[in-house]
Amino acid sequence: MTASWNRIPRVEHAAEVALGWRGRALPDVPRPVLAHGLGRSYGDVCLNPEASLLHTPGLDRFVAFDAATGELTAEAGVSLDALLRFAVPRGWFPPVVPGTRFVTLGGAVANDVHGKNHHQAGSFGDHVRALTLRRSDGQVLEVTPENTPEWFAATVGGLGLTGLIETVTLQLSPVRSAWMRAWSQRFESLEAFWELNAQAEREWPYTVAWIDCLNPGAGGRVGRGIYSGGRHATTAPRKDAWHERRRSIPLDPPVSLVNRLTLRAFNHLYYRQPVHATPRAVHHRPWLFPLDAIRHWNRIYGHNGFYQYQCVLPPAASKDGVQALLDAIAASGQGSFLAVLKTFGDRAAPGLLSFPRPGATLALDFPEKGRDTERLFARLDAIVQEAGGALYPAKDARMPADVFRQGFPRWEAFAAYVDPEFSSGFWRRVTA
Amino acid sequence: MNPMKNVVLFGATSAIASAVARELVDTGARLFCVARDGEALEALLADLRVRADDPDGTRILGATADLADTDGHAAIWQQAQEALGEVDSVLLAWGTLPDQAACNASVDETLQAIHVNGTSAIALLARIAPDFEARGRGVIAAIGSVAGDRGRQSNYAYGTAKGMLAIYLQGLRNRLFFSGVDVVTLKPGFVRTPMTEGFNRAGALWAEPETVARGIVRAMRRGRDVAYLPGKWWVIMTIIRLIPEYLFKRLKL
Which of B43, B55, B197 has its CB closest to that of A21? Predict the structure, then answer.
């Protein structure tokens, strides 16, 4: 049974088939179909209950690489991990990476993913130069932002619904080493965060903050945390060797290891971790992909799984809105291991359904606790809607249709580009 | 250690052979890839050329050929040798997983399955052996199967072909030992490849093509005689071979 990373919802598919080669007709399986990469999204954008999944990790070939310009064309099932292994030793880096490198290029395009450098680099789609898109009627479209801007805007962030993405051409960025220079600093409140953020964003291409959403900081309100900034290093440290210590959660614990007690303790300890106010050398892997070092980390929530809640609030509503969200979470007593706060850059995203937009984005995970979780999300939804914000489809297993439609007002324009033989659990849920 | 600098992969677009090709590219080897499907071969070559920093295709070469057609073997072997110069390593990796039920219903299906997976490979081995024998070095490897270790009702047409191939390789190994050529019989267990799609592939017995490919390259470099991949299949197949036939025939395997 194929599930997404948070293991909610649990659904059955009519058929699942692995794709092996580009340039072939879609397989003969019950319609509608949906491409499924490495299943790192949280919810049902990558699921197609009672219908069919086309697994893309077998489409893992490079197509062409221009070593002079850094333009790479690859099949859509190539993972960012494989891309990094290829590109970094050659002095190139994907211009945008999400918090895990175990995603496919197709998934990165379909969700128009963003990273810690959004304020400088934009989202993944901003660096895509071309796509090949196979439609169910047999047409193969060469999609570029210049020649077919409407198909490009529909397919970038298009949740895999406009057809099967077979290849992706991506402009890589030059780097001079696999290392980064990074620093971190504690802040006592959200006010301190905003001050720090305004300053750090001007100087540092990658920035992100972790928030302790359970223990109050200065002034008695939640909002304390750790701010980090980084950039690609121009040189590797003298001791260049770096070995990842990969651990694994070997099996599902009988109950979720995430509960009020462990959360409070974890958040407290995490806040007290040593910080390094002066930039130091750190390998890109632990800095950009900290959770990738723990295989199957999603198992800590046990068999029932968990939810991610990631929203974006427009700039005018960011300060009050983020505080209101954190207060609501603290009041609920439910909390999150890793609450992440970041501001997006002031730019329009390339896709009709792209999530990144000017403002602040807050991401949290919550163990599945049935009614309590539902009530909390309803409260958070109200704050997001009031602020004129949106929830991230790639991290969603439950948003009501009206929240989606308000957050993505161009969804009806987008719907015209949806392939009639493609669909997903998410799409049926928010458009029904 | 066999250097594996100039390698011919027959059936190169199979999942296992493709993974072997990627392993070898990273070692700087020159490759000649042979496959039946031209489009798939082009996709494979393009991928390998990117990985090899060889956009012009000077290190990564290939040609299409239907290897079930044994009449074409001489020409494609000639072409490979002309392209690479001295070939020091050869891997035979083509094959299909026949539907045993279809074979049970058709003599032609059975003979076809045995030809594609067994006789055609033997024909190519017989073709290239004298060239290796004359040069007195190198390694010849072929992908057999654990299925060739014992006949079972669920896939004995395939098993027959792979068992026959294993015995041919045994004899060839014995013959070429005296001229310094290694002959390697590779016996993968269950591998998650398109060939086995449709099986329930969860569980500890299923391996990734990349894992098997690393084992293949290691076995070829070391000139192993027989390599079960992964190695635990040696234990499993030893037990299976030891089951007395009067019991084995009663099992539903």
Answer: B43
Q: Specify the residue for token string 């995430």.
A: A258
CATH number at residue B199: 3.40.50.720
Task: Report all structural domains of chain A as residue ranges with CATH numbers, in order of start.
Answer: 62-175 (3.30.465.10), 179-407 (3.30.70.2520)
> Do A18 and B40 lie within an 8 Å CB cutoff?
no
DSSP letters spanning A245-290: --EE--S--SS-S--HHHHHHHHHHHHTS---SS-EEEEHHHHH-G
Q: Which of A96, A92, A133 lies closest to A118, judged by CA? A: A96
Q: How many CA atoms lie within 13 A of B114 on its CB side?
A: 13
ipTM, 2 dp: 0.93
Which helix H or strand E contains B188, and what residues bound it? Answer: strand B182-188
Contact between chains at A18 and B43 (C-beta distance less than 8 A): no
Its domain, for residue B131, covers: 6-248
> B51-88: per-residue pLDDT in tens?
999 999 999 999 999 999 999 999 999 999 999 999 99
Residue B101 lies in a domain: yes
Hey, how many other C-beta atoms are within 10 angstroms of the C-beta on A219?
13
pLDDT tens digits, B195-232? 787 777 778 889 999 999 999 999 999 999 999 999 99
What are the DSSP E strand ranges found in B18-177? 30-35, 60-64, 89-92, 139-143
